[in-house]
């Protein structure tokens, strides 16, 4: 399986230059898709096989496919960036490949070879290079996913799978990339529980967060922040992002990883960059009551969310059933701005990368 290689089958009817330009003029996020996709199949008899880069097309699925009944599926998210020389680069694809494997193992799925995972992303970026936006906030968002497509009814791990990567030309995740977001404190819903699938990137985690996200939207908030399921006391993460807190002494705090928190690649990158810049980063439990107290006393000066899609997004206000509180002046603080600049400069090849995170595709 380690030598699985994606063969190229070019789309015989790609979008015209004019159509592509019109779609990319204002792509938003996750609505404009490229001409190709990567696909590979797994069966118990043949292992992983039939790996191709081919025309993007609908997936035929039997109504009894296991994914439709038992939600056995996982996904990832990473980006390709346009570089100053007109080329493109990926950011830490090996970290996504490793997390994809970990998610598969948690969901009782046959892992996809990490080398082939990276090969699929690189070849898809290469063939759809014209879809990478050449704008400050633009990128090509890659969505690798794997589903159980074995046809059966009965609760057991499947023995047949599809691996697919699709790509989408995207702009900023939020309407104002330089602004702040307001988050809703979910006191009824929880995202994940100890022993559950919170550390795996699977659709069920996000489906279970949608009711809370809808509640947040009804309260005028862009995102929801979840507390732990056991005590309903400690801040864990947002609906789709990890969270950091900045204090007046310049230190940062982020909730420690557990089996109910997704190990974010952006989170890990921020911790590394912050420590290299001389900042102290603590990975500690942080109670919601402490958050309120620290903001009101002025001890906490900033808070921000982070993830592949949104990069770093400052949190300006927190709303809850009992009370609201504003963080700082409801504008992006200096620490969030500094870390975002450091991260984006590496992603786009504008600075020296001592970690090997920036990986040129062409």
TrEMBL record:
Highest taxon of the lineage: Bacteria
Gene Ontology MF annotations: branched-chain-amino-acid transaminase activity
Record keywords: Amino-acid biosynthesis, Aminotransferase, Branched-chain amino acid biosynthesis, Pyridoxal phosphate, Transferase
Assigned EC number: 2.6.1.42
Pathway: Amino-acid biosynthesis; L-leucine biosynthesis; L-leucine from 3-methyl-2-oxobutanoate: step 4/4; Amino-acid biosynthesis; L-isoleucine biosynthesis; L-isoleucine from 2-oxobutanoate: step 4/4; Amino-acid biosynthesis; L-valine biosynthesis; L-valine from pyruvate: step 4/4
Cross-referenced PANTHER family: BRANCHED-CHAIN-AMINO-ACID AMINOTRANSFERASE, SUBGROUP IIII AMINOTRANSFERASE
Sequence similarity: Belongs to the class-IV pyridoxal-phosphate-dependent aminotransferase family.
Name of the protein in its database record: Branched-chain-amino-acid aminotransferase
Organism: Methylobacterium komagatae
């Amino acid at each position: 399986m380690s030598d699985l290689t994606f063969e190229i089958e070019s789309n015989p009817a790609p979008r015209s230059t004019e159509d592509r330009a019109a779609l990319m003029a204002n792509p938003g996020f996750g609505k404009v898709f490229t001409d190709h996709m990567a696909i590979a199949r797994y069966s118990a008899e043949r292992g992983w096989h039939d790996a191709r880069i081919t025309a993007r097309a609908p997936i035929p699925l039997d109504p009894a496919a296991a994914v439709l009944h038992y939600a056995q599926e996982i996904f990832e998210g990473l980006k390709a960036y346009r570089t100053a020389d007109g080329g493109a680069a990926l950011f830490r694809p090996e970290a996504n490949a490793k997390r994809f494997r970990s998610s598969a193992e948690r969901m009782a799925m046959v892992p996809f070879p990490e080398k082939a995972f990276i090969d699929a992303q690189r070849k898809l970026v290469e063939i759809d290079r014209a879809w990478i936006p050449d704008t400050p906030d633009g990128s090509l968002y890659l969505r690798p996913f794997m589903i159980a497509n074995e046809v059966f009814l009965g609760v057991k791990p499947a023995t047949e799978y599809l691996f697919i990567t699709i790509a989408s030309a995207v702009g900023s995740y939020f309407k104002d990339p330089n602004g702040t977001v307001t988050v809703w404190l979910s006191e009824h819903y929880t995202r994940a529980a100890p022993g559950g699938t919170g550390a795996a990137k699977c659709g069920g985690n996000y489906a279970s967060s949608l009711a809370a996200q809808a509640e947040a939207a009804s309260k005028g908030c862009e995102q929801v922040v979840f507390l732990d399921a056991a005590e309903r006391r400690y801040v864990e993460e947002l609906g789709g992002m990890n969270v950091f807190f900045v204090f007046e002494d310049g230190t940062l705090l982020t909730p420690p990883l557990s089996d109910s928190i997704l190990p974010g690649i952006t989170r890990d990158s921020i911790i590394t960059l912050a420590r290299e810049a001389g900042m102290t980063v603590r990975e500690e439990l942080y109670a919601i009551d402490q958050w309120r107290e620290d903001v009101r006393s002025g001890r906490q000066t900033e808070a921000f969310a982070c993830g592949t899609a949104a990069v770093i997004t400052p949190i300006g206000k927190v709303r809850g059933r009992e009370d609201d509180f504003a963080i700082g002046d409801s504008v992006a603080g200096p620490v969030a701005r500094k870390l975002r600049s450091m991260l984006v400069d590496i992603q786009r090849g504008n600075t020296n990368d001592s970690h090997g995170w920036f990986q040129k595709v062409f």
